[in-house]
Each structure stands twice: as structure tokens, then as C-alpha cells.
Structures
1.
Amino acid sequence: MATQHNGVQLQGAIDADGHILEPPDLWETYLEPKYRDRAMRIRVNGNGLEYMEMDGKPMWVGYPGFPGSLGGMGETNLSPRPELTYIKGSPAAAMEAKARLAYMDSKGIAKSVLYPTLGLFLGESKDAELYAAHCRAYNRWIVDFCSDSGGRLIPIAQVSLDDDPTDAARELERAVKAGAKGGFFLPFNWQKKSPGHPDFNPLWAKAQELDIPLAIHPTADPPELDVHKRFSELAQEGDLFNFTWYMDVLVAQGMMQSFVSLFHYGLFDRFPTVKMVVLESQAGWIGYLLDRMDAVFRVPIGKTTKMKESPSTYFQRQCWISADPDEKAVSPVINFVGSDRFFWASDFPHPDHIGHYMEALAEMVEPLPETARQQVLWKNVSEVYKLGE
């Protein structure tokens, strides 16, 4: 059991953002009957390559061969080919609860907060009703999946910002009562309305009432809504060869835009106990962002916002962010911002993060005082999501 690296004790760590690879027939099984013929599916094209489909149409993100790469953490060859399928390319720990628990034991991980894989791409749908129905189906399934794990696998509900906010709030409440420990949304929506906008008040009010965190989680944004399209070769729909590098390296840009809107619209004054989490977009930038928001807040431009206090005040009171274990420069930022504001996350089993993340995690937290290590490794996420001992 890998419980210690370089003298740093990791046993009992809690992964704040792990992923599950859903059964490919999840939505055909869990969707309400009226939507099942429009379900997200994995298909095979004439060249034997899998692709993703929703509402009977190929998805932009699910280019031929893409599904087989989704469980490829640590693999060196994820080039599209017929033999690399969604099922064959997925480790058992990504799809089976018992295998996931055994995998966690081998890493010294006590609990894992789970997010979807295929479900991250649901936001591509411009049909708000269909998107919301897929979220409901996923939420029912993930609670079932985690139900026999002894509280070690933590289900998080997906909510759509394209859904009617009152309906989204109702689904969040239903999912939490069924067992979900929080909710998350994507950093964009087809209304092009920032998540801090008062129109979303019913959703935030429900999260505050339930005393559960809401998180922003990144995905591959549709071309029309993506923030990485300044250069002409990146603006071409379907050009994933050029796009993927920019998307992964600069993922924080879209997340920052979504996150900053919460401050601009005074969300944390309207909901002074709501809990907000930023995931999978690194954490080293948060020191810069808080400094910059505070600086702008102090000058006349800051008076155009709805905030009553400095942005860093709200962050210290109501926000948390997850760090990638291979962020070598993040430890000083943790000390500067405050160690009670940080989680760590593996992103297992996705291929855009490293496979030796526990070793990297030990290096990341090694410079921190012991109390801060415990906060980052397990204490903060346990308290925020109320995971118990």
C-alpha cells in the first residue's frame, strides 16, 4: 500500500476530483422513456472507430477514436484505432465500484469525490430539456453506483445552467436527498449568461439551504462558446489537433471567467453561507487572481460591481480550489492564500493528468507545515462536503 512518499504520510488522503467512466448504455437505461431514443451513445463509424452521439447526431467532442482515450491515464499511445475502444481502454477501477475501492487502497486514498466523464460533454447539447434529462439520469445512476461503497465513493450531482433555475434547484435537492454530497455545473451555457447572474438565484439559494457546495468543473467547450479561439486555426470547428493543446494548457482561462462572475454580481453577499469550489484548472493562479480582483475593487472600476467587501474576503469565507499534484509552484501560494482553502485532486483515470500523482502529491505538500498538509490532503474536503471521519 502506497501510504508514504519521501517521508510524507499520505494514508487517509481524500481525492477531491476523481472520475468514473459511465457505462456506455447509462442514458438508455436511466433516462426517462420519452428521451431514450435521443440518448448519448457510443457508435462505430465505417473505419471501425468509436465516436459519441447525442440526439441522433455525432457530437463535436466525440471525434472518431476519442472515446477509447478517456481512461488512458499513464498510457503512452492513445492514437485513434479500432482496437482502442471505450471499454477496452478503461481500467476496471474506472468503471467498477469494487475495483475502484481496491485501487484506492493501493494508493492510500480513503475517499474519492466522483465526477462524470461522458457526462462532462452533455453541455454540447443546445436542447435544454434534453440536457437536463441527461443530468437527471446521471444523478440517479451515480448515487446507485456509490451506494455500496461504505461512504468511500462520494456522488456529486450534475446540474445544467441551461435548465430553468427553479427546475435545476429542484433536481439538486432531489439528488442530495438521494445521497449526493454536492453539485457541479459547467463553466459555460448556451444563454451566454454568467453563473453569478441573479437569474440563477434559485439554484444558489437551494445550495445554501441544503448546505452543500456547488463546483465549477471544466470540459471541452463547444467551438461557439470557447475562450481559446483567438487564432484562426483554432477557430475551425472540429480542428481538435490544434485545439486540444490550447484547451488543456489554458483550461483555467474559461474557469476564471466563470468564477470571476460570481464576485462581479455580488453572489456572496446575496448568499453569505453558500459554498463554492473550483476544480481541475490548477490552483497556482488563485493568488494572482485574488490580488488582481482586490486591486480593481479598490479603484473606481470596482464600484461597477455588486460587491460590498473585497473579493479576497469572500474567497476566504466561502470558496475552495483544487490543486493538481504536479503543480510544483503551488506550495507558496497555499501558504500565501491560506491552507484551509485548498484540496488536491487526481483526475483519475483521464489521460491529461499524470499517473504517478501520489508521488507528485507528496512533493507538493512536503514544504507545508504538518497542519497545512492535513488540511490539503483530507481535512478541508472532508469538512466542506461533510464526509465524516
Note: The mean pLDDT is 93.
2.
Amino acid sequence: MLPGVPLEAGRDSLITGAREAFKELGLKTSPRNWLLVVAGRA
């Protein structure tokens, strides 16, 4: 998912980003058929 990034660091970044997105959107769960992650370099 994140080419060239060490697996553990990439995993931690994806988890953090998903948690922040859920918090901002007020979500507790998402439907099984709904998962879209769009990212860019900051």
C-alpha cells in the first residue's frame, strides 16, 4: 500500500489516518462494502 515504506511504519500511518478520519466524520463503523482511502504527500 505504501511502496518503499517499512511495513510497520506504513501500518501505523494507515491506522492513525483511519482513526482520525473516523473521528472527524463521527463514524463508529463502516459498511463492509465501503472503504476508500485517498492520500497524498504533505
Note: The CA atoms of residues 17 and 41 lie 13 Å apart.
3.
Amino acid sequence: MTPITIYRGRTVAVFGLGTSGLATCAALAEGGANVIAFDDKPAKVAEAQDKGVATGDLRQADWKNIAALVLAPGVPLTHPEPHWVVLQARRADVEIIGDIELFCRERRARAPRSPFAAITGTNGKSTTTALLAHIFAKNGRAVAVGGNLGTPILSLPPPSQTRVHVIECSSFQIDLAPTIDPSVGILLNVTPDHIDRHGSFEHYAAIKERLIKGVAYGGTAVVGVDDGVCESVAERAARDGTRVVRVSMRRNFAADGIYLDGDTLIDMHGGERRYALSLGGIGSLRGTHNAQNAACAYAAALALGLEPAAIEFAMRSFPGLHHRMEQVGHKGSVLFINDSKATNADSTANALASFTDIFWIAGGREKEGGIATLERFFPRIRKAYLIGEAAQDFAKTLDRKAAYEVVRTLDRAVEAAARDAEASRLPQPVVLLSPACASYDQYPNFEIRGNEFRDLVLKLPGVERV
């Protein structure tokens, strides 16, 4: 836990009592703050009370005595409209922040130059976060990893000169962290997402950029520059005097930056090749999108003191993330891949680009735009197996462009895809779950969807676990 001492003796309201909210309450109380916790769901309030958290109805609170409102990232701050608790705090001129902001303020008070890497982007941030943490751990460095990746940041040990914090940050979390100031900030990419929560793509992009603007104490901004938004972010950061490492999978750098040449990352510094890092044979980092993740993690680890060869050595043992291009098993030449975390078309594009003969399981609760943007990958698809609410719409998009079957449920999809892939006798067929959809029509979250896929695959006769 990171005790939050900066509000000692003051009253702080906490709204939203999920995992991060409860961790925030514990950290504030441990640091000496007076906590008033609340949630719209009575069951959440009761759960907090059972854990010894001081609760109170914030609709009836005296806001003049509240120093800050700590909001859970899932609670609307601006769009589609501010939550009622946000409106109450604003009327009382009470600042509204999140748990990432609390950590940043405590870090400045406790250990302002402690190593802190913050990672964001529309896609790839979880893999990059896990990879960077793995690199430090393999090199014997104490590392605390969490944030949007899973473990709430305030459940992690306190900031320290001898410990590296590696934190995944969603746009919701950055929106509640006005003074975020990492030692190394990574911005992977920015494409349209969460517009319902941010109102416009421009606002969403500006929130992502805030992480780079906050890089402090002579730190480093690592920016993937293969989209126009991030190229502009890198240029602005460099003009402001921030050290910027540009990363590209599409173009070479003559002077400074990291780029991809075949399956090798080339690190250029001062017009000379500093290091060439081969990704060949690292199954967990297959695909151009993972090459970008690896390049950004490499740049961050380098900026925080590791040597290139030590970084490459650690990458070779990276197991990958569950539900993100996860190699589940194989049966003969058929490989089964769990990419359940691909909840939008952009993310699925990365998976489809990584293989040639694909038996694709897709569908769920459709996102805006569906799968129309994936048409360039349809020639790679031997057959698609469509599940969930999106099945009929996806069928219309695929019609006469790729073979498909509407199977509705994941168990039927796995059975049919495995049968067809094995019968194809192709050299390297892949059964790929990469839904390009949210899971909420049939599953509470993408993790449960991915777990079911893994279980179904491993129950197939003759499948060996990877």
C-alpha cells in the first residue's frame, strides 16, 4: 500500500467503491485522512462498511468541509453528462481527482525523483506495461506494476528510489490526474475510442497528450509517431524542451529514434546505430503492433538505466499477457490464439496482420464502425465464425468477401473453427479469437470471455498447452 499522507487530518470524499475505490479509501485512512466513501450501489456501500471503511451519503454531505473528491475512473466526469457527485463537488469548488493523481502528489512529497514509468495509448498499453515490468524484474530491479492493468496504484508499495513503478494509464485515469509527472511517459498511439466519455476525438487526444506534457525532472517521452496525432505530440514535446524518443514501424530514422527493419529493432542515436534488437522467435511479441510495444518498452528501460543487451535478454523470456495474442495451445500445425482483449477493430487489425491462414472467431457487442475497416485483411481469413449481437452485421460486411458462418456462441465457434482448421491441412493455420467487440452481450468482461475460450480449446482432443 502507498499511504496518502498529504491529506492527513483533512476530509476526503471517495466516490465509486470498486477495487480501486476501496484501495483509495485504505490508503487515505492509513495516511491519516478522514474518509467519506459512497457509491450509487447500496451493495458496494455495504461491502465497504464490512471492510471498515467510513461511508456517508454524499448527497447529504457538507461539501464546505471536504478537501477533495477522489472519483473512480468509471464514473462520468464530463460526458455523456457529469455524474451528480461531480456536479455537487463543482458547485462547492472542491477539486476532483483520481487515484493516479494521489500517487503523483504523494510521490512528489516523498520521493520526487523515484523512477516512474507511465504508459498510455489506445492500443498496446497493457502489453507494453507488462513487458516493461518483466524487463526490470528479470534484471533484478524491484518493480511495482499496476494501474489500469489490474492492481490499483495505491495498493502498490510507496514510491522509492530503489523501486520502479510501471503504471498503465487509461484516458479516464489521466483525465483525473491533472499533474501527472512520470520519469518516463510512453504514448503508443491515438485512434478514436471512448468518444462517448470524452465528447470528441480532439478532447480524447488532448487527455492522452497530458501524460507526455507531464514528463518531469529531465525525464523522457517515448512516442510512437506512426499516426498524425502522436507525431504532433512528439513535435510539441520536443519544442517544449522534453527529451523525446520517437518510435516508428513504418519509416527509418537517420539520426535519433527506434524503427523496425524486418524483425529487428534499430536504435539510432546521434546518427549512429547504437543497438539492433532482434525480435525473431519471440512468440509473445509476434506482429508489428508488438514490435512497437517492444520498441517503446526498450526505450523506457534504456532511459531508466538498463543496458541494451540486458533488455533484449529479458524480452526473450516474456510470456505475454493473458487474452492478448496469448498462445493457448496447438494441435499438430494448428495454433490457437486468445486475443479476447481486442474489443475494437483497430486492436483486431493487429492480430489479423500477424497471421496468414486465419480461422477467425469474432463478434459480441458491436463498437461504432463494426469491422468495415478490416476489409484489407479479409484475404487472410479462411473462414469467420460469428458470435453474439454483432453476428448478423458482421455477416453483411463479410458477405462475398470472406467465408463465414453464424454460430452465435463461443463453444460452437471453437468446435467449428478447430474442425475446419485441422481439415484444411494448411502449413500454419491459426484459430484466432479476436472479437473486435465488447463482451457485454454474453460475458461480464473480456477476461471471462478469454478464459472460456482457453478452457474450450484445452478440452479439445489432442490439443497441447503452449
Note: Residues 100-315 form a domain with the UDP-N-acetylmuramoyl-L-alanine:D-glutamate ligase fold (CATH 3.40.1190.10).
